[in-house]
Amino acid sequence: MKKIEHIGIAVKSLSASVPLFEKLLHCRPYKTEQVESEKVNTAFFITGNSKIELLESTETNGVIARFIQKKGEGIHHIAFEVDDIEAEMNRLKNEGFRLLNETPRPGADNKLICFLHPKDTNGILIEICMEKK
Ligand code: ZN
Predict the structure, then answer these.
(1) Gap between the Cα atoms of 6 and 4, Å rounded
(2) 128: CA distance to ligand 1 center in Å?
(3) How many Å lie between the centroid of ligand 1 and the Cα of residue 62?
(4) Residues 22, 82, 127, 129, Cα dihedral to 10°
């Protein structure tokens, strides 16, 4: 794994949290994007070598909505960049980690992504991601 590509933060409302993070980070999001398959709207900020991804649910029963109901707003996942997502998925599977998807799936920001089961990683949802070529 190369670096922390981004940290995903679950928020109730992008229209409230984007201005907050603009103040905090002193920059504007470089992109906002709806990801249909994940039922989220996202906003991305660059901070040095990595990014902050704000996630707002588009549906009341979406993954992010349910996360916030259970735990409140906050860090939702940590994403690591990898060179070869299929090779890394195989490696992690062989190490005993459970993958939440068996094949890479399209994520925000032109990425292929895979999530690991948080029960295998100290309760932290880990995403691995690779730039789509
Ligand atoms: Zn992410």
Answers:
(1) 6
(2) 8
(3) 15
(4) 70
